[in-house]
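Fig. S4 source data, part A: sequence.
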Amino acid sequence: MRAVIQRVSRAQVSVDDEVVGSCGRGYLILLGVGAGDTEDDVERLWRKIFKMRIMSDEDGKTNLSLADVDGGVLVVSQFTLYADTRKGNRPSFTDAAPPSLAIPLYERFCELAEADLGSERVGRGIFGADMQVELVNDGPFTITLET
């Protein structure tokens, strides 16, 4: 699994001009599922993100986790994180998981987030949809993770 985590003041995702998911202070998580990923990868990645201390404390230092600040997340599936651009000018996505594998793992990731944060603090995109993502990156602060 691959994730791009952006610390945000707020973020939202829309499909056909309708907002389908959002969060306030917290993280926008762009989540890519690879062909060999398992539920263990999902759990390991979520635990890492949930415990990461990249939120600012009162001194402006990155010392706080999502739980410390009552933060939320917006999780958006993004198979393009598995783009292979080593050859030619057109990316290949053969390393990305097919929907039959990726959808259940994406859903499981969101369920773990809801269990720790509460469903009201977890926004989701729509898997496979043409989405428009808006965010206010706080910092800017962006981290990539891979299992």
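Fig. S4 source data, part B ends here. The beta strands are 2-15, 18-23, 26-32, 55-56, 62-64, 72-77, 122-124, 132-146.
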